[in-house]
Amino acid sequence: MVEQNARKDDRHETNTEQDMDSGYAWIILLGSCLTYLLGLGSLKSFGVLYTEMLDHFSAGSGNTAWIGSITWFLLQVLAPLANFLSRRYSFRTVSFTGGLMVGCGYFLSGFVTRIELMYLTFMMIGIGYCLSTTCSAIIISLYFKKRRTLANGVMYSSGGIAVLSFPSLYRFLIDKYGLSQALWVIGAFLSNICVASFVFRQPNNVLNYQNKPLQSNDAQVEIEESIFLNLSDETNDQQRKLIERCCNALNLNFCLFKNRRFSLLVLAFTICSFGQTNNYILIPAHIKTLGYSNTYITIGVSIIGGAELIGRIAVGWFADLNFIQKKYIFVVCMFIGGVFALISPLFDSFMFMAVYAGVTAAFPSSFLALTSVLAIERVGMKNFEAAYSIMFVCMSIPSLICQPIAGWMADYYGSWYPAFILTGIILIFAGAILLIEPFVNRYDMGKTYSFKNVDKEMASPVKRIHLKAHKQNKEDSAIELS
User: Fold this and answer.
1) Cα angle 156, 160, 163; round to 5
2) Using CA atoms, how far apart are residues 289 and 335, in angstroms rounded to an integer?
3) For residues 176 and 86, what is the distance between their CA atoms, to the nearest angstrom?
4) Do the Cβ atoms of 120 and 65 come closer than 8 Å?
5) 456 phi/psi in degrees, rounded to 5
6) 291: DSSP letter
7) For the chain, what percent of residues have pLDDT higher than 70?
8) Cα(43)–Cα(321) distance, integer angstroms
9) 255-262: average pLDDT
10) Alpha carbon distance, N-terminus to C-terminus of the chain
11) Cα 378–chain centre separation
12) CA distance linking residue 275 with residue 398, whole number of Å
């Protein structure tokens, strides 16, 4: 019996190696692309619906922007939960459930007459987007290794295909049926996420995770003890253990922040998310403010899709060539997008907005193709899923507030130009953060930790974690400086 199990495990391991970067991995990529096309593509085309909802509800630019921002927030903040569920059950089940929620959410939105209720229906849509797209992003990194950057670039660029075509579809449906009935048709169409989910085959390296009780290994216990060390002594032990088990289940390894390179990366991505997410409503809303018709709004949003399609594949391909470090690709993309946002008040024509839409999609938006590989460079494949969860939780906070802030600025100043300036400053700042990484590494190499008078076996979990983190930072710094 033991020999049979051993042969079965060997077969699983062999199949995993055969699938890596080839074979069924490409089928997984196809399903992920379709899921991402329908999910994120429709969300990025929200600008067309946003301009229509401005007139439909007459609630102001800032209040209407909450609809999209709530969706972005839930998409990112619930990523750890989606990751846990996909391992606990399966990527296929979780993605299918997400597609079902997206379809139902849009269908119910067609009956809404008050903007407050639209917030609720789009909460359902945001949860559905999270469940489906998180599965797509994680399963890609489990099936690709050598071509991981390219695979991520192809998947993320599929959203560009949707943004290239969805705005015209949305415009046609709204003109023909009105906003409410158009939402019904959109919901039925996006339910095809359920169809795409059927190709998701659970990776062999996570098969054994299913139906296992939640438990912590020694390393995770140390992490959890360091997180909760500052809790009051009066905290109930049972409640404390429950919180620790939840963090373990959701793979929220906060000890990764001891790695300063990873901390800088998370900060850069968080700030970038604040600036980049604004563009999905800035571009269509500003075109409308300039006095252009709905046709021009549709063209502007479609340009975003075409530029994303080309830009993300190109960035993924170029990053895999390893001519320069991937972090510098991120820095250059942020600087280019920031400069164009800062000079936008100098122009008031559709031609410039078309160029701006292409630039912001080809450069700042391409950072998503680099998220996985940059995280893996800093924490390793072993900690990738925990790092992915933490990154998107942090990125969810600016996604919640950035679009309403931009809308309120437009309501207050009577123009979208101040929001463009704010976006430009934020994007440049996001790129500048990674430029200080070498200085942080030199600082870490100069620091010394002394534990000579402490028995290693008796040292507290916090000290052991600091020592491990210090050693890891020294290794990372040596690689960086070389």
Assistant:
1) 135
2) 26
3) 39
4) no
5) -60, -35
6) T
7) 77
8) 31
9) 84
10) 51
11) 17
12) 9
How many CB atoms neighbour CB 205 within 10 A?
11
Residue 14 has pLDDT above 50, yes or no: no
Burial 176-202 (b: 16+ CB within 10 A, else e): eeebeebbbbbbebbbbbbebbebbbb
> Alpha-carbon distance 211 to 26, whole Å?
28
pLDDT of amino acid 97 = 93
The secondary structure of residue 60, as a DSSP letter, is -
CA distances to 176, 225, 377, 382, 406 from 480, in Å: 57, 31, 11, 20, 38
What confidence category does residue 248 fall into, taking pLDDT thresholds of 50, 70 and 90?
A: low
Render 425-456 in DSSP notation, one character per residue.
HHHHHHHHHHHTHHHHHHHHHH-----TTS-T
- Two structure tokens written together for 369: 């193709």
Supply the DSSP string of 196-237, one letter for each residue.
HGGG-PPPGGGGGGTTPPP---HHHHHHHHHHTTTS-TTS-H
User: What pLDDT score was predicted for residue 80?
Assistant: 82
Least confident of 134-148, 168-182, 396-410, 424-438: 134-148
CA distance 458 to 346: 65
**Residues 268 and 434: beta-carbon distance below 8 Å:** yes
Phi, psi of 324 (to 5 degrees): -135, 165
Q: What angle do CA 336, 284, 273 make, to 5 degrees?
A: 45
In sign, the C-alpha dihedral spanning 377, 382, 388, 390 is negative
Please give the structure tokens belonging to residue 152.
Answer: 């991520």
Top pLDDT among 128 and 16 is at: 128
Instruction: Write the single-letter amino acid at 202.
Output: Q
In residues, how long is the chain?
482
How many whole angstroms separate alpha carbon 137 and alpha carbon 39? 12
Residues 6+ apart with CB under 8 A from 401: 69, 274
Alpha helices in 250-349 (DSSP H): 260-289, 294-321, 326-343
DSSP letter, residue 257: G
Do residues 128 and 102 make contact, with C-beta atoms less than 8 angstroms apart? yes
| Per-residue model confidence (pLDDT) at position 107 | 94
User: Hey, what are 33's tokens?
Assistant: 């692309």
- Amino acid 403 reads Q
Structure tokens at 330: 């991120």
Integer Cα distance of 153 and 477 in angstroms: 28
For 464, residues 6+ apart whose C-beta sits below 8 A from its C-beta are 222, 456
* Sole residue written with tokens 């070389």: 482
